[in-house]
Design a protein that fits this description.
24% helix, five-stranded antiparallel beta sheet, alpha+beta, 10 strands, 3 helices, three-stranded antiparallel beta sheet
Length: 131
């Protein structure tokens, strides 16, 4: 099965799993998805993630995080899509929910949050917003 937007699929799986109060969610792994999961873990939105090889296919497993029964991630939305890429300079990166959320940005220096990108004065493609 070919997906036209694997990152959008990843975000939809996370959102749907949290609406159903699942503890874990599995999806096909890639280096880019692993980097996004690493940013989500470092920012405290997920507990952990793991990449395992299952029948010559890498599977990314994300342990979802809940705070007193409600999901930590309230909104996770794709911003830049394959049909419409959204790029931003370091100065014009969006502030998500007045600084309470994060935007995940793919920069020449790697995948990072909008806050880190502003500190390093580097822009890039705005992948998604999380809060």
């Amino acid at each position: 099965m070919s997906l036209s937007d694997p990152i959008g699929d990843m975000l939809a799986r996370i959102k749907n799993s949290q609406m159903r109060n699942h503890k874990k969610v599995e999806m096909p792994a890639s280096n880019f998805k692993t980097k996004i999961a690493d940013v989500l873990k470092n920012e405290g939105y997920i507990n952990n993630f793991n990449v395992a090889n299952n029948d010559n296919k890498n599977i990314l497993t994300i342990d979802l995080k809940y705070n007193s029964g409600s999901p930590v991630i309230t909104v996770i939305e794709r911003i830049s899509r394959p049909g419409r890429r959204i790029f931003s300079s370091a100065e014009s990166l969006p502030k998500i929910n007045n600084g309470l959320g994060i935007a995940i940005v793919s920069t020449p220096k790697g995948v990072m949050t909008d806050i880190e990108a502003r500190k390093q004065k580097v822009g890039g493609e705005v992948i998604c917003k999380v809060f």
